[in-house]
Amino acid sequence: MSNLSVLLPVAATSDTDGLRRAHRSVTEQTSPPDEIVLVTNQPLTDDVETAINNIVAMNSNSRHEHIPGARGLGGVLESGLEKCSKPFVARMDADDIAKPERFADQLVVLRETGADIVGSHLAEFRDDPERPERIRKVPVTHDEIAGWMPWRCPMNHPTVMFDREAVLDVGGYRTFPMMEDWDLWARCLAAGLRFRNLDRVLVHAKICGLNDRRGGLDYVRAEVRMAQELRKLGISSRRDMIRHLSLRGPPRLLPPKLRERVYQRFAR
């Protein structure tokens, strides 16, 4: 047994082909998980509901948890995390593709190095997973990850695997719109948890309209909230806070095409 749960939130309008592909990449792991928890919180389209029902019917280790009271992505993830029953939890999104060795490699790190949270680089694609548009590289060692934390999220959320109890002990996911993952990692770092990223791509993620979603005043406000939280946790200095807001705030207000160029350049 791998002692591993997979937490896989599914949006009401998820692409069903992508969902089936994501689920298949999990079941075909060299070290398959003990359970796959598909979590929803909204009324589903008929196609999505049918796809989930078929997945659950054909895979005894998969189940659907519908939690209508969960608010936003943070609420869905926290509710889903509480439903996971195994010591280790891997994150996946409904349009991600995990490489076959992903879970095996990450479990070794969690079991043998003292790390509590482990991720990897992420390949982003639009049409063909084998022809990614860019690689989102992240720092590898704990010290490097801690060095990024004050001004840039150092973990690719769809790639992470973590110790369930350790993450729940710091409060788990919470409602923190647009920054749910960075907020969690910051609190984990402040609590003394140890991080690691593997220096290779273990997940391919489909992108579609991502840069439009990452722009606008709501995202600027989210950056301000995140900078304030980092300061409150003692992770960032006043200088770090200024750097964070000056580097990350203005691009949020750029026109989409220009923001696309910035995103292509900095891959974040």
**Uncertain segments of ≥5 residues (pLDDT<50)?**
none
Number of domains: 2
CATH superfamily of the largest domain: Spore Coat Polysaccharide Biosynthesis Protein SpsA, Chain A
For this structure, what is the CATH class of the largest domain? Answer: Alpha Beta
| SSE class | alpha/beta
User: What does the largest sheet look like?
Assistant: 9 strands, mixed
Helix count equals: 11
Overall body shape: globular
| Name given to the CATH architecture of the largest domain | Alpha-Beta Complex
Mean pLDDT, all residues:
93
Strands, count: 9
User: What is the subunit arrangement here?
Assistant: single chain
Helix fraction bin:
40-55%
The end-to-end distance, rounded to whole angstroms, is 36 Å
Strand content: 15-25%
CATH topology of the largest domain: Spore Coat Polysaccharide Biosynthesis Protein SpsA, Chain A
**Rg over CA atoms:** 18 Å
